[in-house]
Amino acid sequence: MQNYKVTISYDGHAFEGFQSQNRPGSRTVQDELNKVVSKMAKRPMKVVGASRTDAGVHANGQVVNFVFPFNLSERAILMGMNSQLPLDILVRKVEYAPLTFNARRSSHEKRYLYRVSTSKFVDPFKRFYTGHYFWHLDLDRINQALPDLLGEHDFASFAASGNQTATTIRRITSARLQAIPDRDELLFIFQGNAFLYNQIRIMVGVLLEIGNKTRPVHDIRRLIEVKDRQQARFTAPASGLYLDEVYYEPMD
């Protein structure tokens, strides 16, 4: 047996998320991967993903793993998967991993990006790949607010209904904003140990509301204290969200 760590990218707009839905007709990233790996292994296989991205969410660097019944080279796994996967999934890297490695449980930090298109009208070529927000934004206000997210906090106000985690305490280690004027875009970059269901999309919604002056600059501090999702109701669209990288300790 050989455990493989596989880094993949996918265009999420035609998927109902990463995780298998057990529902006829649903198309998920995990199902597509399971089909290909099972065919290569000549037996039913199930891949484990680092993050259960939602419908419409993209990935530059999702990580999966699977324990294969026999040993193939990393290149053989990469070539075999890419020759059979649909064109909206790409295997970028394959590595041997110890049998103890689990893509979800072994990760210690993740980085997500959120792209906001700020053009006046929706660009048809960006509609599946950005969130659109045309209201005037004061970027200085957003930059003042971002440090309020850093550190370990109870982010209950930023968790959508349906969140099933045992705790809503998470640690955010980096929260940045990059303006890209020539593309009429803003890029939010968040890194942390883990994120709650829809947490990043809700945080982006709050930051955009701070930027358009419908919230006080430091309203995030209050939202952390009140632990009430009803006071942070705007959720930015899934189309702008990207799982960018998953971090692990070095493998022996």
TrEMBL record:
Known EC number: 5.4.99.12
A Pfam family this chain is assigned to: PseudoU_synth_1
Catalysed reaction, written as an equation: uridine(38/39/40) in tRNA = pseudouridine(38/39/40) in tRNA
GO biological process, one term: tRNA pseudouridine synthesis
Binding site for substrate: 112
InterPro entries cross-referenced by the UniProt entry: PsdUridine_synth_cat_dom_sf (IPR020103), PsdUridine_synth_TruA (IPR001406), PsdUridine_synth_TruA_a/b_dom (IPR020097), PsdUridine_synth_TruA_C (IPR020095), TruA/RsuA/RluB/E/F_N (IPR020094)
Record-annotated Pseudouridine synthase I TruA alpha/beta domain positions: 9-102, 148-249
Family: Belongs to the tRNA pseudouridine synthase TruA family.
General function of this protein: Formation of pseudouridine at positions 38, 39 and 40 in the anticodon stem and loop of transfer RNAs.
Known partners and oligomeric status: Homodimer.
Classification via NCBIfam families: hisT_truA
Name of the protein in its database record: tRNA pseudouridine synthase A
Gene: truA
